[in-house]
Amino acid sequence: MISFGTREFFEHLRDELNRDGKFRKLGKGVYTAKELIYIRDLRIGVWQETQDGFIQEFRLVPSVELKKKEEEAEIIYYVDSYETLIKMLRGEDSFVSMVIDGTLEFRGSMRKAMQIQGASDRMEILVRKIVNQTVIPSKISFEKWARKEGYI
User: Fold this and answer.
1) How many degrees, rounded to 5, is the angle at CA 88 between CA 101 and CA 76?
2) Which of 34, 50, 51, 102 is the most exposed place for a label (fewest CB within 10 A)?
3) What kind and span of H or E run contains 60?
């Protein structure tokens, strides 16, 4: 079974999304974006680069690259903690309630975010399905792994 955060996890996620006809159809012609999820407590991120509804790059961003990716990103989601990210990915908490309670902060082009909303909604459904079939390490285990791999 694939473990969350690994290269294999992000490659699998990218490949599944790129194979999904509905995601591709919703993104075609509108979904071109560079996005970053910034995980504040670990000071690492998740990078996604999408071109015309096709995900080109999906990966974990180490601390040393975070500032550069923050400057490159058109849309940034600041998440307060690893646990919050996992709740969001599993579908245990809604995006809107997370923005309201301050556990998720959005920065970037609202116009771009609205433009990609349809494909993003489809992506959210697929991500939840994949994440719920994935080994999710505890924060302590994930942090230990991330340090060993040079992400932190």
Assistant:
1) 75
2) 102
3) strand 54-61
* Cβ density class 140-151: b for 16+ within 10 Å, e for less: eebbebbeeeeb
Task: Give phi and psi for 36, each to the nearest 5.
Answer: -135, 130
pLDDT per residue of the chain (152 residues) written in tens, 0 to 9: 899 999 999 999 999 999 999 999 999 999 999 999 999 999 999 999 999 999 999 999 999 999 999 999 999 999 999 999 999 899 888 766 777 788 889 999 888 888 898 999 899 999 999 999 999 999 999 999 999 999 99
- Per the confidence metrics, is the pTM higher than 0.85? yes
For the chain, the C-alpha Rg in angstroms (whole number) is 15
Confirm if 142 and 134 have CB atoms less than 8 A apart: no
The structure tokens listed for 50 are 């999408």
CA–CA distances in Å: residue 78 to residues 25, 65, 103 = 28, 16, 8
Question: Residues, the chain, total?
Answer: 152
Strand pairing report for 44-51 and 33-39: antiparallel
Rounded to whole angstroms, the Cα distance separating 5 from 151 reads: 10
